[in-house]
Design a protein that fits this description.
Two copies of one chain form a homodimer. With about 350 residues, the first copy, chain A, is an alpha+beta fold. Chain A has a single domain (about 5-280, about 330-345), classed as Ribosomal Protein S8, Chain: A, domain 1 (2-Layer Sandwich). Chain A has helices at about 10-25, 30-45, 55-65, 90-110, 125-135, 190-195, 215-220, 230-245, 285-300, 315-325, 335-345, and strands at about 5-10, 75-80, 80-85, 110-120, 140-145, 165-170, 175-180, 205, 225, 270-275, 330. In chain A, the strands form three sheets. Chain A has a seven-stranded mixed beta sheet with strand order 2-3-4-10-5-6-7, sandwiched between helices. A two-stranded antiparallel ribbon of chain A has the order 1-11. In chain A, strand 3 (about 80-85), helix 4 and strand 4 (about 110-120) form a beta-alpha-beta unit. The longest helix of chain A is centred in the N-terminal third of the chain and has 19 residues, at about 90-110.
Chain lengths: ~350, ~350
C-alpha cells in the first residue's frame, strides 16, 4: 500500500469551506460554524481521524435523515447540579458543545455539575469540550460511548466501543492541560483514516474478526481493536459505557448503531460531562500556581534513553496546532477529493 | 529466591487480632475496627499488598507520632455538594472511610457530590470505599495520590505515585461492579509484598534507579514502576495527582512523604471521592436492569483463545473473597511473624 500525497490547506479556508458545506446540507449558520470549527480544530491538533475526514459521513447521514438537521437541547431532567438532555438524534458535535456549555455554567454556580446526553450521535474529538471548560477555569471529565468494536478482556466478539475519555485542567501561565485517550490501544478513527489514505497500521492495534493480529486497515475495520493495558483498558471502557450509556438512558454496547454501516437508523450514542470549578476547595490563583509548578517540574525531569523531550498530556497536540496554524493543515488527496465531491453534491464551490 | 510457606487464617480471627493490635497502639475501638476490617477485606479480595502486611508500618508510624492516633474530620470548606476535609495527619483508612460516607450522604441529597481530603495518609485499598457507595446505590469514583515512584513518560526520575483509581457501580441481581487499578503497570504494594515474601517479580513491572529492567523486588523498590500503556497511564496518573493533590491542597508529586522511608514526617497525601446517585437521570430499577443485562451479555461473549472465562471488572476479587471466606486467608510465615512481633510490642496475645 502506498501513502497518498498530501497538500497543505489554510485553517481559515478549510473552516470556511466546511461551514458552507454544512449550511448547504441544511444546518443553521450557528450549527454549521460549530461543526466546522470542531472538525478543523481536530485537524489542527493532529487528530486527523476526527477532523474533516468526517464531513462525508456526517453529511451523508444528514441527507438520509438518520441524523436530524436541527439539533435541539431537549431538557428531560434538571437539578441545580445536573441536566439530562435528549439529543433527539441531532448532530453529536452540536449537542456536546451545548451540553458542555451548560455543564460549565452550572458548575460555576454549584461548584460541580453533570450533564448527560442521550439519543446523541458521534461527537467528534472530546478534547474540544474539555478545552472549553479549562478555559473557563474548570476541571472537566468527558466521555462518550461508541459503536461496538472492542471485546471485553478474554472475549473475541466486540461489545464496547473505543469509549474515549478526556480531561481538561486549567493552568496559570502555562498552557491548560488537555488529555484525550481512547480506552483501546488506538482510536478506531485512526484505522478508518489509514484505510482512506491507503496506509498499513502497526501490529498490536487490532485483530481481524477471526482474532488474528493484522496490519491491514481493511481487515482491522472489520475486526476488533484491543483495550489498552488489557484488563485495565477493559475496566475503563466499562466505566465509560456506564456513564455515557446506562446512566443517561442512551443505547449501550452492541445496540449503538455504526456511524458508517448502519445508514438506516439513529446511533443513540450517549455523552457524559462532569465539570468542577478548579477553585472548588482552594483559591484559583493557588491552584493555578501549583499547576504551573508541577508542569515545570515535570518538564525538567532528566530524560530516559530514547526520548528527546517530556511532553505534558496534550502538549504534542499543542505543538502540532502551532505548526499547522503557520504551515497549513496537511490533507491527503483522497480526503480533498472526498471534500470536493461532497461540496459538489450541494453545489458548493470548491475552494481548497 | 524461594517462595515462603503460607498458612491459612480465619477471617474473623485475623480481624479480631488486628483490631486488638490497633487498640493497643492507641486507636479508639471504632477506628481500630475500621482499620482491621479494611485490611482484612483487602486480603479477602486477594489484594494482599494492601492487607495485614501493612499493620507493621501503620503501627510504627503511630508509635513514632508521624501519624496521629486520633483521626478527625476537620471541615475546611463545605457546600451542599462538596466538602474539603483537613485530615490532620490521621490514618488514611479512617479518614477515607468517613470521607466516602459523607460523599454518599451528600450525593443522596444533591444528586452528585465531591469530597476531598488533604493532610491524609495511605488509605489502603480504594475498592473498599467505592464498594460502600455502590451498596448505597451510588456510582463512585475514588482516587488518591501516593509517594513518587513513577516517572512521567519519557523521564527517568520519579514524580508521580502509582496514583490508583477505583470505581463502584451498583447492579441489580448481579453483583455490584467494583474496579480498582493502579495507573502503573502494577501497584507498588505488589513489589513490597514480593520483597517480604522473597519472590521475584515479572519483567515489565519496574526499572532500577539506573533505568534498567529488573525482576528483583529489592532493586525495583529502589527504582521506578512504569505507567500502564505508556503515555496513557502517564496521562491518567497526572489527572489523579491533580484531583487528589492540587485540587485539595494536599502535597503532590515528590513532596509526598514515603510511608516506609520518611519516618520523620507526615505524608500529606490527598484523597478525592466523587459520588453520583445511580438514579441521577433514570429510575433506579431501570438502571439496575440495564446493568444486569450488560453484565450477562458480557459474560456470554465467546472466549478468545487462551481464556477460560470473561471476568467482569472486580470479579476475580469477588471469587477470591468467596474462596477465602471458606478456606481462610493465606498468609506467609514472614507476614505472620511480623504480625506476632507487632502484637508483642503492645503486649497483645498472639492468636493466629
Amino acid at each position: 500500500m502506498s501513502v497518498s500525497t498530501t497538500l497543505r490547506v489554510e485553517k481559515e479556508k478549510l473552516e470556511q469551506y466546511v461551514m458552507e458545506v454544512f449550511q448547504a446540507a441544511g444546518l443553521s449558520e450557528e450549527h454549521s460554524s460549530i461543526v466546522a470549527k470542531h472538525l478543523v480544530l481536530a485537524n489542527l491538533r493532529g487528530i486527523d481521524s476526527h477532523g474533516v475526514s468526517r464531513v462525508e459521513i456526517y453529511t451523508k447521514r444528514l441527507d438520509l435523515g438518520v441524523t436530524e438537521k436541527k439539533s435541539k437541547v431537549n431538557v428531560v431532567k434538571e437539578s441545580p447540579a445536573s441536566m439530562l438532555i435528549d439529543g433527539g438524534n441531532g448532530l453529536g458535535i452540536v449537542l456536546a458543545t451545548k451540553g458542555m456549555e451548560i455543564a460549565v455554567k452550572k458548575a460555576k454556580e454549584t461548584g460541580i455539575a453533570v450533564v448527560g446526553i442521550k439519543d446523541s450521535s458521534h461527537c467528534g474529538m472530546l478534547a474540544d469540550y474539555t478545552m472549553y471548560a479549562a478555559k473557563h477555569d474548570c476541571i472537566a471529565l468527558a466521555t462518550t460511548n461508541a459503536p461496538s468494536s472492542m471485546a471485553p478482556w478474554g472475549g473475541k466478539v466486540g461489545y464496547f466501543g473505543t469509549n474515549p475519555f478526556s480531561y481538561g485542567i486549567p493552568a496559570g501561565i502555562e498552557h491548560d492541560i488537555i488529555f484525550d485517550m481512547a480506552t483501546s490501544v488506538v482510536a478506531r478513527g485512526k484505522i478508518t483514516l489509514a484505510r482512506k489514505n491507503n496506509q498499513s497500521i502497526p501490529l498490536g492495534w487490532a485483530i481481524t474478526k477471526e482474532g488474528r493480529p493484522t496490519t491491514d486497515p481493511f481487515e482491522a475495520a472489520d475486526g476488533l481493536v484491543l483495550p489498552v493495558g488489557g484488563p485495565k483498558g477493559y475496566g475503563l471502557a466499562f466505566l465509560m459505557e456506564v456513564l455515557s450509556g446506562l446512566l443517561t438512558g442512551a443505547a449501550f454496547g452492541p445496540y449503538i448503531a455504526s456511524l458508517y454501516k448502519d445508514l438506516d437508523r439513529s446511533q443513540n450514542v450517549g455523552q457524559f460531562f462532569l465539570v468542577m470549578r478548579a477553585d472548588l476547595f482552594e483559591e484559583l490563583e493557588q491552584f493555578k500556581e501549583r499547576m504551573d509548578q508541577m508542569i515545570r517540574e515535570i518538564r525538567n525531569i532528566p530524560l530516559a534513553e530514547g526520548f528527546e523531550k517530556i511532553y505534558l498530556p496534550g502538549e504534542i497536540e499543542l505543538e502540532t496546532t502551532v505548526e499547522r496554524q503557520t504551515s497549513g493543515i496537511p490533507l491527503s488527496v483522497n480526503i480533498l477529493n472526498e471534500l470536493e465531491a461532497v461540496g459538489r453534491r450541494y453545489g458548493v464551490r470548491y475552494s481548497l
